[in-house]
């Protein structure tokens, strides 16, 4: 790990895998477990950076694929790198673009009929603000790289592991990811196996390219893949975990019912002394399980995407603010919430903004949901530090699931 | 005037009509001349109230027609009235809905072919976030009131002067307006004359209804109409100006070339000791002329509407941020601007947000344009107080028009 980075573990869940730590980056420390807010296109949708700070966020995750297409990585570089370009002074992360190349590139002007089979929280929603998933055979994959089409204008582009690392170097986030092949959750075992071999090959090439540019202070995370197959997941964890990465991402899709056991097994294999980022998972209950199973970092577009549809978290579960029963509710969405939205606006007013299709609806709802998720993960961290994670989990579940 | 209100003039332009004053309302004083920000549906589009305060706004103007349809005036009333409902603690104004009833109601599912002939800044854009204008004969007008259709679902509604005042009482803004007939700028002299008589009849009925509810601390402004005909404008100014209103609105459309002379003539006739609100005018140059001719209050959707299209004010005129020349401009939109946007973000970044169709583009651009217009009017006030309005005007024009 570059000297500009370090990861230390402060406490652990008794007899468990979960841990609380501190990940130091050139732009400040990240207290883990931590939820990174998604700023796909160098903006956390509908929020100013002051609002992002105000909700307690400490890390922003942007996307290489999107920034490559617009405004272009050279513009971000000239603007001082991701943080300065978007006026965010804290730590930043970029995803490698692997997921987007396969999901968005393949889906350009094609049928996206498989979307309906996928749902938020199934792990398919990795780091993107777009949920299009399609048959991965529609992007042209060779061992060399991937040819894909721009979701903006259909123009053809080619990404290799080396290219992804170079682009991420230009963007200049603190943490970058190896380029991987992200398969469809419907891919066969045979295809998953072939794709995994390629992902491992690409991990080595990503790492080699990264080491060429070590004068730049960036940490490179490798990505564990393997889809829904436990043997492939274990193989991947051993392979990627054995390489000289600064941390690890756990990518791809899971069966909802298997996620706990699979993630637990992966984390048993991965080195204990490096941070682990579970990519694209943001459901409050999934987050509890993932923290318990030893994941340190998270990101997901779900909190802001569902917010823009009027779905809001409360300590008693999700609500839809468009429900008629909120029309006359002149109190906050969640009376126990300390977010800006709940401190200043009523449920009736926010419901009105949604009905009136006002932009401010997105802003206030996004603030609320991100604050909820960030605070939720912070409370887990505090519970691990204080040695009462099990009590926290029981208390949360009792209200949230009831 | 209710005891809760007062208007005092502090200084005047030498040998001119313009004046600087203070208009005291139950929710604070308004230093005039003043630009009221438009919050049509109880929200200043894309901004939180903290952002609205931060740009220096002191008054919010909402719309009776829109709030009547959604969320309903009873909801606003139950929410504590307009200010509390939207979390705005300062002074508030509602337009009577007259303009919207004729423009939006008449236009529901109808041809709106006349729109193209109208442009922002022509005075047709009064207090609404919608620019639809149609032949006023398409709303069913009788001396009793107007039947119109909801722009949301086409349902039929009926407004009378009494009803408008009652609705505005429920909404509870500090300043409310008499219900008027807003004619098409293309209406004949004969029709304008007939409509003006009706507006005068409705002014009397609005005033009578208002006086029934004088226990409520609201100021009622009458509206001068008359379209593009100077004799009708003068007649209206004499008639409305002679009534016991707390202030006056100048509504309807003008010929751009006549606006100065017409507004000047109207203000010569209106009582000197009451505030005058020029409805729906917000162009920087029009504002200078209107202040010079003795108008005290303004509102217009143009600054935020053009902002959402990427058109931004600078001291050297308007720019479109989507222009390619801004792609690599890593400095603020206007280096001399003190707004939040210019203090924190570059032109390159804002252009990126617009190209990426990100919501934050609207927010940052609206903050900039509103700050520009509000500061512009505040500078005019300071110039009147300091006795150097002519110098201010020359200095502004020299840069802005060049």
UniProtKB/TrEMBL annotation, chains A, B:
Catalytic activity: 7-aminomethyl-7-carbaguanine + guanosine(34) in tRNA = 7-aminomethyl-7-carbaguanosine(34) in tRNA + guanine
GO molecular function: metal ion binding; tRNA-guanosine(34) queuine transglycosylase activity
tRNA-guanine(15) transglycosylase-like domain location: 17-109, 137-400
Alphabetical UniProt keywords: Glycosyltransferase, Metal-binding, Queuosine biosynthesis, Transferase, tRNA processing, Zinc
Pfam families in the record: TGT
Annotated binding of substrate, by residue: 95-99, 180, 225, 252
Catalytic activity, EC: 2.4.2.29
Cofactor(s) this protein cannot do without: Zn(2+)
Active-site positions on this chain: 95, 299
Cellular component GO terms held in the UniProt record: cytosol
RNA binding, as annotated region: 280-286, 304-308
GO biological process: tRNA queuosine(34) biosynthetic process
Superkingdom of origin organism: Bacteria
EC class name: transferase
Coiled-coil intervals, chain numbering: none
Cofactor-binding details, from the entry: Binds 1 zinc ion per subunit.
Pathway: tRNA modification; tRNA-queuosine biosynthesis
Subunit structure: Homodimer. Within each dimer, one monomer is responsible for RNA recognition and catalysis, while the other monomer binds to the replacement base PreQ1.
Similarity comment: Belongs to the queuine tRNA-ribosyltransferase family.
Protein name according to UniProt: Queuine tRNA-ribosyltransferase
Organism (species): Candidatus Taylorbacteria bacterium RIFCSPLOWO2_12_FULL_43_20
Upper lineage: Bacteria, Candidatus Tayloriibacteriota
